[in-house]
């Protein structure tokens, strides 16, 4: 099925674009309020400065006398109805029109704080009408000179609206440019890699065993996106390996199913023939006869258990009282006989440190198989001494197998209990530890690796008592 992406209006890219524009506009609004307040104060200060200059013109006139026409022209230049100039709380000059209206509000620039200026600016923008107000403050030309003037708010409001329009268009342009740059950056850094992730996951869903789509995820990025790509690659590789293992397991199960009947027939014949050894006149043959019969019985059980494992895993345990010391000794005897067939310098030592009275309700055959797998691994690793110990505590039994071999290869530690994956031996199958874990879990416990190294390896099974 082809990858179906959402339309642009509902895509991640459009959401990023809209959010970027919205956040930039919000930032511009937050910046606009102080800017508009400063524009208003600067506009009024400019009028105060003009009023001060007008007063200086009057002072410079001969004997400080001005005509009514000059006074009206000066007030028209200042755009004020009246101007009052003081120095050290003493009135120096006052210009006024004869028809001046009464003020409706008073603004003191020297006493207004930043929040007051912002509040007054917002009120001016929202107010409809042309009020007459009194504005006071120190002259920008000489802070020692106080200036008061009676002016209309209309010219100020018109200038403030023009300033706001310029800021609005500038904000829109900045928002679009910034949003475009952020959009392109996020598209390259985030959206496109995420799309590749989605495509790779859908391709993996269609064909998990194909590695071609995953190869396109290779990246050297060290950020979160790069980590996500590499983790997805690792997960896909692990799943493919698990699928191959299941396929191999299914193949083994099919093969075992086909040959299981024949092997059981051969073992039955061997068992019938071996029973005659019990009547042999040779004492040594009579002593070895029961061991041979027990080995054949275990082989027949192994065929059935292997078939069950490849089909359904380890079968539910058939619990019975099992003396662990005796069981461990029997496992050791079987493994030492098996090991004696190999060329070696000296026979290994199989040591059992288990109290004779320690009895566990368990499946004897499954425990024999699990201990046998652990012991066989130890002997094949070159151990000269294998120690089996057990202790009962808090309703559980801790059964451990330790050796003095060369230790496990580092490369198999991460996949120690996976079927067909954890064997460090050239001819190993990797089933020994996997079966041991399933046996332990079937008995309400688990198995763990306590330690491994040049001094040996130690496994511990915790079984419910």
Automatic annotation (TrEMBL):
<keyword id="KW-0812">Transmembrane</keyword>
<dbReference type="InterPro" id="IPR036097">
    <property type="entry name" value="HisK_dim/P_sf"/>
</dbReference>
<feature type="domain" description="HAMP">
    <location>
        <begin position="191"/>
        <end position="244"/>
    </location>
</feature>
<dbReference type="GO" id="GO:0016020">
    <property type="term" value="C:membrane"/>
</dbReference>
<dbReference type="InterPro" id="IPR003594">
    <property type="entry name" value="HATPase_dom"/>
</dbReference>
<feature type="transmembrane region" description="Helical">
    <location>
        <begin position="167"/>
        <end position="189"/>
    </location>
</feature>
<dbReference type="GO" id="GO:0000155">
    <property type="term" value="F:phosphorelay sensor kinase activity"/>
</dbReference>
<feature type="domain" description="Histidine kinase">
    <location>
        <begin position="258"/>
        <end position="465"/>
    </location>
</feature>
<keyword id="KW-0418">Kinase</keyword>
<keyword id="KW-0472">Membrane</keyword>
<dbReference type="Pfam" id="PF02518">
    <property type="entry name" value="HATPase_c"/>
</dbReference>
<protein>
    <recommendedName>
        <fullName>histidine kinase</fullName>
        <ecNumber>2.7.13.3</ecNumber>
    </recommendedName>
</protein>
<keyword id="KW-0067">ATP-binding</keyword>
<dbReference type="InterPro" id="IPR005467">
    <property type="entry name" value="His_kinase_dom"/>
</dbReference>
<feature type="transmembrane region" description="Helical">
    <location>
        <begin position="16"/>
        <end position="37"/>
    </location>
</feature>
<dbReference type="InterPro" id="IPR050980">
    <property type="entry name" value="2C_sensor_his_kinase"/>
</dbReference>
<keyword id="KW-0547">Nucleotide-binding</keyword>
<dbReference type="InterPro" id="IPR036890">
    <property type="entry name" value="HATPase_C_sf"/>
</dbReference>
<dbReference type="InterPro" id="IPR003660">
    <property type="entry name" value="HAMP_dom"/>
</dbReference>
<keyword id="KW-0808">Transferase</keyword>
<dbReference type="InterPro" id="IPR004358">
    <property type="entry name" value="Sig_transdc_His_kin-like_C"/>
</dbReference>
<keyword id="KW-1133">Transmembrane helix</keyword>
<keyword id="KW-0597">Phosphoprotein</keyword>
<dbReference type="GO" id="GO:0005524">
    <property type="term" value="F:ATP binding"/>
</dbReference>
């Amino acid at each position: 099925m082809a990858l179906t992406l959402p339309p642009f209006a509902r895509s991640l890219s459009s959401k990023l674009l809209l959010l970027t524009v919205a956040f930039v506009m919000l930032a511009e609004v937050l910046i606009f309020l102080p800017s508009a307040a400063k524009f208003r104060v600067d506009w009024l200060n400019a009028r105060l400065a003009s009023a001060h200059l007008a007063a200086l013109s009057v002072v410079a006139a001969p004997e400080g006398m001005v005509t009514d026409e000059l006074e009206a022209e000066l007030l028209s230049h200042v755009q004020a109805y009246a101007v009052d100039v003081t120095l050290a709380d003493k009135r120096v000059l006052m210009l006024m029109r004869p028809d001046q209206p009464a003020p409706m509000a008073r603004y003191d620039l020297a006493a207004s704080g930043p929040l007051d200026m912002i509040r007054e600016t917002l009120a001016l923008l929202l107010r409809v009408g042309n009020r007459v107000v009194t504005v006071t403050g120190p002259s920008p030309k000489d802070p020692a000179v106080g200036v008061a003037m009676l002016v209309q708010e209309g010219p100020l409001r018109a200038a403030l609206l023009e300033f706001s329009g310029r800021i609005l268009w500038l904000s829109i342009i900045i928002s679009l440019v910034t949003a475009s740059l952020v959009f392109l950056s996020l598209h390259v850094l985030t959206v496109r890699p995420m799309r590749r992730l989605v495509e790779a996951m859908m391709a993996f869903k269609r064909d998990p065993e194909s590695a071609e789509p995953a190869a396109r995820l290779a990246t050297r990025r060290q950020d979160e996106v790069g980590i996500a790509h590499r983790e997805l690659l690792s997960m896909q590789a692990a799943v493919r390996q698990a699928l191959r293992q299941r396929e191999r397991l299914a193949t083994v199960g099919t093969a075992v199913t086909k040959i299981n009947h024949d092997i059981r027939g051969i073992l039955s014949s061997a068992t019938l023939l071996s029973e005659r050894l019990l009547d042999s006149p040779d004492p040594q043959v009579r002593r070895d006869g029961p061991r041979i019969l027990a080995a054949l019985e275990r082989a027949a059980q192994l065929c059935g258990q292997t078939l069950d494992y490849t089909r359904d895993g380890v079968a539910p345990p058939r619990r019975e009282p099992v003396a662990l010391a005796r069981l461990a000794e029997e496992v050791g005897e079987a493994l030492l006989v098996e090991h004696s067939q190999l060329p070696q310098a000296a026979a290994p030592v199989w040591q059992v440190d288990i109290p004779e009275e320690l009895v566990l309700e368990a499946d004897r055959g499954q425990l024999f198989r699990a201990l046998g797998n652990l012991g066989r691994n130890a002997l094949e690793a070159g151990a000269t001494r294998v120690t089996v110990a057990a202790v009962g505590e808090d309703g559980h039994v801790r059964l451990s197998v330790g050796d003095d071999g060369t230790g496990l290869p580092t490369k198999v530690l991460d996949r120690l209990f996976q079927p067909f994956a954890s064997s460090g031996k050239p001819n190993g199958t990797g089933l020994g530890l996997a079966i041991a874990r399933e046996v332990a879990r079937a008995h309400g416990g688990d198995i763990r690796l306590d330690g491994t190294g040049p001094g040996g390896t130690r496994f511990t099974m915790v079984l419910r008592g």
